[in-house]
Automatic annotation (TrEMBL):
Stretches of the chain forming a coiled coil according to its record: none
One GO location term (cellular component): mitochondrion
Species the sequence originates in: Theileria orientalis
Keyword set, alphabetical order: Chaperone
GO BP terms: cristae formation
Name under which the protein is recorded: J domain-containing protein
Record flagged with keyword Chaperone: yes
PROSITE patterns from the UniProt entry: DNAJ_2 (PS50076)
PANTHER family reported for this sequence: DNAJ HOMOLOG SUBFAMILY C MEMBER 11
The keyword Chaperone is annotated on this UniProt entry: yes
Amino acid sequence: MPVELSLSQTVEDYLNKRSNLNKGLNHYDILELDPKCSKEDIRHSYYHFAKMFHPDKRGNDEYSFLLDQVKTAYETLSNEYKRVHYDIVNGNYDGEVTEEKLVAIYDLMRQKYYTFITENAETYILLVNSEFIQQGLIIKKALYGNLTLINPEELKSLVTIENKHLKGPYIDVTVQLQLLIQNGVLNLNSGAPTSFGHLPGFYNPLDFERSEGVNESQLYILYLFKNNVHEVTLNDHSCVRLPMKSHLVYGNYIKGPFSLSNLTFMA
């Protein structure tokens, strides 16, 4: 049966199908696909729903949160290695899960991570220059992964936390976040909470390198807006919209990546 016959043809039908699901939505649910679907099925579903929910089609952005969910699902399922890892984590993988397979997936995802940065370097520079001229939103530094401190008890007040102070593993996602800015605003998880590891050019290093006592990655963002310094550290799956006044750095003190889990060790 052609894929298009199984996909909702209206927003109302789509929302009704979702409301009938008794469990949390996964990426396959969002695209109305079976976990055994083909690459072509994924591509077809993505374009079908992206067109349905796009503001240009609707005449407004009422369903932009659905479009964001569709984009996130497609970003993961259209990537062969992210999809395999996603299926393993969510119990949809039929093959044997071996250490060798996980290592191979990790290596390939790291390669894609570096390739993404290289391929988008020129675009990144153009975007930063554009935001600079407008005194807009510029991502100065962004780290994603285990941002807990190696020695939190030794942390001195008014000392900026640097990379050397962090346990890791973590990855630099400065370029990736700058590319996600639209109309001077960065929206993360505006649709439904999902791991930042599924964003374009990301992967979650904690999926492959476990850290004792840390079960969830954090995202640190240092950014400029109207030439003022801002910073924030977020738990994975958080919903956030940048810029925010509450992120403003007062004076010259930049805290740096500060995971809330550090407070447990400092108590």
